[in-house]
């Protein structure tokens, strides 16, 4: 017997099931029937919420971005932290499941829809840059950042990170990706007027990845 659930509850349940399925079994190998079986729901119920598997993946990504932005906003509002401390927590991914983020990124690329991936990158840049720009302005007040373009700098740096380091447009090996990450940290330090080495955490993750591949 199928259980009747509220509209929002059922949609969230489908999204949670899809998120788990896509990051374990993989997007390409997952089917709508897998989700129907997991949740014991009819096909009509699924299509009431989502027009296709791709639309479902789009919604999974949107939910992930919403959660990320909420977490970032929470750090940004911590009044006891300096601007550098906030940046470190946010950009180093401290406290987040990095492995899960990487799996979700790989499955996003597996969709094979360049337009969708471009929308995702644009959403991250547009929603995250104002929060980070406010942190840069805090750093300017504290005397640790120095730039005339807080908003524009964060847009450019985020776009570069998403396209060069997170995207699939370039087939970098681990050492090449590390080199790009180091260069991005160098450019970020110059653009934001911070002391050399203060943004090294932007590439430390890639150092660990490279070491694990040796």
Overall description:
- The protein has ten helices and no strands.
- It is mostly helical and 214 residues long.
- The chain folds into two domains: 7-49, Homeodomain-like (Arc Repressor Mutant, subunit A, Orthogonal Bundle); 53-213, Tetracycline Repressor, domain 2 (Orthogonal Bundle), CATH 1.10.357.
- The radius of gyration is 20 Å and the shape is elongated.
Q: In the CATH classification, which architecture of the largest domain applies?
A: Orthogonal Bundle
Uncertain stretches: none
Distance between the termini: 53 Å
Mean pLDDT: 84
The first-level CATH class name of the largest domain = Mainly Alpha
E-strand count: 0
Radius of gyration over C-alpha positions, nearest whole angstrom: 20 Å
Content of β-strand: under 5%
Largest sheet: none
CATH topology of the largest domain: Tetracycline Repressor, domain 2
What's the tally of helices? 10
Q: Please indicate the count of domains.
A: 2
CATH homologous superfamily caption of the largest domain: Tetracycline Repressor, domain 2
Structural class: mainly alpha
> What fraction, in percent, of the residue positions are helical?
over 70%
Oligomer: single chain
Overall 3D shape:
elongated
Task: Give helix and strand order, one letter per element, not per position.
Answer: HHHHHHHHHH
